[in-house]
């Protein structure tokens, strides 16, 4: 089965891209939405994700990797919530904003647009490539 891509949202004042880089490896936990939990449970070691700053910034800022999958959420004592370990791969050449994503017709089906409140989304391979190209174009703009 082909590797999948993901997008994971965090408020930068709670846990930012820079926090993950400084930490080296972190635990993505505290998710209390069933669909987001199912996405966490579907993740495999080595799969990549976009790190999205929610609430403040509203932009994709980097690429991370799932370093350990299929773990229970350490903040949950009921045993029904999932977590993964994550590590940074690279900062994007330039951020890609939610406004830019909403303006791009080829991304109209992206879960980030359709399920705005979902904190852990799947990203289709064509969407992944488009976001990467948008980041490179933004970097060239300066």
TrEMBL record:
InterPro entries listed in its UniProt record: 5hmC_binding, EVE_domain, PUA-like_sf, THYN1-like_EVE
Pfam family, one: EVE
CDD domains linked: EVE
Domain named EVE: residues: 4-134
Protein name per Swiss-Prot or TrEMBL: Ubiquinol-cytochrome c reductase
Species in which this protein is naturally found: Croceicoccus mobilis
Upper classification of the organism: Bacteria, Pseudomonadati, Pseudomonadota, Alphaproteobacteria, Sphingomonadales
């Amino acid at each position: 089965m082909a590797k999948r891509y993901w997008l994971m949202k965090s408020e930068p004042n709670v846990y930012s891209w820079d926090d993950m880089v400084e930490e080296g490896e972190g635990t993505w936990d505290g998710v209390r939405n069933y669909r987001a939990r199912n996405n966490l449970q579907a993740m495999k070691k080595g799969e990549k994700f976009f790190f999205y700053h929610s609430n403040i910034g509203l932009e994709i800022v980097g690429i991370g990797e799932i370093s350990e999958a299929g773990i229970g959420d350490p903040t949950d004592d009921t045993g029904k919530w999932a977590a993964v370990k994550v590590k940074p791969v690279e900062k994007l050449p330039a951020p890609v904003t939610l406004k830019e994503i909403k303006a791009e017709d080829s991304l109209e089906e992206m879960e980030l647009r359709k399920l705005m409140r979902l904190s852990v989304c799947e990203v289709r391979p064509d969407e992944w490539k488009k976001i990467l190209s948008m980041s490179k174009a933004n970097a060239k703009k300066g």
